[in-house]
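2024-03-11 09:14:02 INFO worker-7 job=invfold-0412 stage=load source=structure_tokens
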């Protein structure tokens, strides 16, 4: 009887989930602030062509459930307040980062899919991940140096490398990551984020330039999720799934 109770308590809500949430929020906030300052999209405040924090939003949601989604939301709120954006705008705008994690989380949990499985060809996959890291570095340089054609090329290379990884590893796992965790998550975030900016008329963003800002937002998110997000998923998922901080459902 006591053993059953102890097991139930261990799997329930503990101090670990709020603690992970707090740490994840701090890390995500730091990355978000750095990204919008170091790699902005033109003169649009709060939009980055290489939003590094997006690379952690989806893995955080898949690892820590709603705690990861809330961390993404609050990090965007804190970043917006740091940039002195109006609070009423920030509270709506930050939903972009919340849904970027929530949509993949809902799909993964409904299909009972884990973020990653044991690697079938670890040497090949680790080699691909090294190339993904190099691609991200080139993308960052291209963006800061306004090398548009190179930046677009890194987008194509990142997606291509991820397709190769899906081919050599478990097809279902990594195809789902590419479609849901990378592309769909980026599109959802872009719709909410840029849509909020156009609706509020914030940062000079109007519906007339929505496509330009939207493409910059989505391209940047896809690049970091396809590269850094994939690297984090490969390297940390097997460790986190076996730990006590892993959230199997939504809150516990």
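2024-03-11 09:14:09 INFO worker-7 stage=emit residues=252
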């Amino acid at each position: 009887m006591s053993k059953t109770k102890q097991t139930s308590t261990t799997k329930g809500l503990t101090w670990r989930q709020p603690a992970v949430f707090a740490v994840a929020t701090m890390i995500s906030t730091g990355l978000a602030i750095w990204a919008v300052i170091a790699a902005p999209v033109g003169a649009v405040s709060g939009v980055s062509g290489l939003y590094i924090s997006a690379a952690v939003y989806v893995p955080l949601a898949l690892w820590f459930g709603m705690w990861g989604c809330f961390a993404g939301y609050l990090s965007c709120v804190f970043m917006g307040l740091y940039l002195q954006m109006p609070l009423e705008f920030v509270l709506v705008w930050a939903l972009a980062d919340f849904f970027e994690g929530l949509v993949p989380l809902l799909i993964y949990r409904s299909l009972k899919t884990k973020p990653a499985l044991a690697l079938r060809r670890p040497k090949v996959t680790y080699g691909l991940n090294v190339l993904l890291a190099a691609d991200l570095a080139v993308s960052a340089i291209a963006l800061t140096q306004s090398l548009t054609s190179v930046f677009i090329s890194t987008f194509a290379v990142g997606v291509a490398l991820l397709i190769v990884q899906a081919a050599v590893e478990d097809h279902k796992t990594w195809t789902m990551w590419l479609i849901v965790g990378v592309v769909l998550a980026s599109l959802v975030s872009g719709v909410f984020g840029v849509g909020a900016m156009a609706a509020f008329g914030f940062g000079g963003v109007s519906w007339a330039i929505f496509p330009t800002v939207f493409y910059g937002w989505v391209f940047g998110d896809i690049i970091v999720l396809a590269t850094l997000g994939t690297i984090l998923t490969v390297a940390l998922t097997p460790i986190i799934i076996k730990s006590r901080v892993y959230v199997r459902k939504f809150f516990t």
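2024-03-11 09:14:09 INFO worker-7 stage=report msg="The beta strands are 40-41, 44-48."
2024-03-11 09:14:10 INFO worker-7 job finished
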